[in-house]
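Lab notes, practical 5.
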Amino acid sequence: MVMVGRITRCRGVRGEVDVRVESDDPDRFTPSAAFHTDRGAFPFLVLAEARPGPKGLIARFAGITTIEAASELVGADLLIEADRRPPLEPDQFWPDQLIGLAVHVGSEPVGVVEDVILGMQDRLVVSLRGGGAAEVPFVTALVPEVDLAGGRLRIEPLDGLLDLR
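Output from the prediction step:
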């Protein structure tokens, strides 16, 4: 399961909520879209309505018609099965595929990918074996090899990028 959104707060008294979108698929949040949640009382939600809001979407889910019901959803992650994501081009990866990979310089393990910071220039947050962390720009020149099956990636850091002491 992968997170594609998070319910951040109630909006009004008729069960609407604000959703922070964590997906770049424009069709992900259309009415009748279905999501799993991490909430026992509401393990599955079906989107009834959605419109743009100031910080994402304003949404209403089927069966959620009161502020009391909506308040139970605040903080819930909206999840989908990983295989429902659109296919990627070769040499493209989902952040959750990279998190947890062992990081090597040559054949020497130097750390683990702890997080991926998405932006104009995506960066890998690497927890270093000797302590500390480093941000490595996720570009082919610095990360020439990603081996998902082998659970590792190889980096070729510029001088000073990693403090390996």
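Observations recorded by the TA: The helical segments are 67-71, 95-98. The CA atoms of residues 2 and 79 lie 5 Å apart.
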